[in-house]
Structure to design on (114 residues):
């Protein structure tokens, strides 16, 4: 089982980024998935999730700015992040679960500057 996040980087406030998570080793289309993030010294935050049936969750901190989606054919999970803010700076992980606790990848760093 493997999850590999990509797409992080450094952006300015108000800009956008799209994160990707490529998975392998399990039936992606039957798996609920999530995105979590962790800033230095902070707890792990569950920011978004999508079930195998398309039910979606957003934390209030990202609702209206972030969009989660999945491509079952290509076994990829995405997180479109718009109107980014400095408080969005963190390491972002995709998680093999509905919620923050599950197998996750190595993460991708996102930094938002003023």
């Amino acid at each position: 089982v493997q999850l590999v996040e990509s797409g992080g980087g450094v952006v300015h406030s108000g800009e956008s980024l799209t994160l990707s998570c490529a998975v392998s080793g399990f039936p992606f289309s039957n798996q609920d998935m999530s995105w979590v993030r962790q800033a230095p010294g902070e707890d792990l935050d569950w920011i978004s999730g999508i079930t195998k049936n398309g039910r979606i969750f957003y934390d209030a901190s990202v609702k209206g700015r972030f969009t989660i989606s999945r491509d079952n054919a290509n076994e990829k999970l995405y997180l479109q992040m718009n109107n980014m803010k400095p408080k969005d700076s963190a390491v972002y992980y995709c998680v093999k679960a509905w919620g923050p606790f599950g197998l996750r990848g190595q993460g991708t760093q996102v930094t938002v500057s003023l």
In short: The chain is about 0% helix and 50% strand.
